[in-house]
Amino acid sequence: IFSGRDNGIAAKLATSALAILGKNNIFDLYGSPHKLVRSAIMSFLNSECIQRYVSKMDSLVKEQVLQELNDKETVQVVLLMKKISFIATASLLFGLPEAKERDGLFKDFTIAVKGMWSIPLNLPGSTFRKAVQARGR
């Protein structure tokens, strides 16, 4: 969905996604608040930082792949890649080295992502309600 803002066109989030991400998410900001948040994010993604992250990411990916392949005949690659991406982000950008904390956040993150694309009905047991609760945790 598109809407007009500041002499331009901007994408507008679905109601369920907006409820889960919150009103101050990067996708819904515009103007100077958007520039401020974007510049903060870009400070993490400059070439010097990326060079520092590459070796850490390499060891993290190897560790996760070896851990996942340990004594298993089959591996769910898509789930593994999602988990590795989340772990890399949580560890490198947010400094969460504890596996227990990361695993709990990964579960809540997965629930929240599913809820972003669900029908925004806040009924007991609904995907949307579970996602809102996961965001709160």
Automatic annotation (TrEMBL):
Listed InterPro entries: Cyt_P450_sf
BP GO annotations: sterol metabolic process
Keyword annotations from UniProtKB, A to Z: Iron, Metal-binding
Origin superkingdom: Eukaryota
Family stated for the protein in its record: Belongs to the cytochrome P450 family.
Cited PANTHER family: CYTOCHROME P450 26, CYTOCHROME P450 FAMILY PROTEIN
Name assigned to this protein: Uncharacterized protein
Natural source organism: Populus balsamifera
